[in-house]
Amino acid sequence: MPDIFLPSGPGYLIVQGLHIASALVWMGSMIVLLRVFVQHHGVEAGSQSDQALSKLETGLSRGLITPAMIATWALAIAIIALNPSLLASGWLHIKLVLVIALSGLHGVAVSAIRKFVAGDRPYSPGIWIQLHRLTLAAAFVVVLVAVTKPFS
Predict the structure, then answer these.
(1) How far apart (Å, rounded) are the C-alpha atoms in residues 17 and 23?
(2) CA distance 95 to 141
(3) In whole angstroms, what is the distance from residue 149 CA to residue 152 CA?
(4) Most buried of 34, 62, 88, 90 (most Cβ within 10 A)?
(5) In angstroms, how far is CA 65 from the centroid of its own chain?
(6) How high is the pLDDT of residue 115?
(7) Counting beta carbons within 10 angstroms of the beta carbon of residue 72, is it exposed (0 to 12), middle (13 to 18) or buried (19 or more)?
(8) Packing angle between helix 10-40 and helix 90-117, nearest 10 degrees?
């Protein structure tokens, strides 16, 4: 492996930076989407507002959330491939559990978008508010764990 991709090399740091940037876009967009779902519950199915919110949700998912999630995962795999010793770190296991849960929530959100577009109102506004808060909390914990690296 070229020295540029060693854990202290500039190539590795670029991969890490891109991973962080894509995770920021993914989590930020997910947090916004979950709040949009709350607002979507308050509009009449078939109305102009319903159509506008459906378009916004679909655009967020297809244009930002899904590509950013895929990039986050791909870059994480690249980081681990470049530094396989990370797999022995306890903090990474915590982070992976949370990121897998967030990926599952992404699947729930994509399914909800389809239901909103069809005129349904999946779950309740209260559920979306709680998922919004949990997403925010999970994102904070992921960052704290990645920075402080407990259980190394």
Answers:
(1) 10
(2) 8
(3) 6
(4) 34
(5) 7
(6) 97
(7) buried
(8) 40
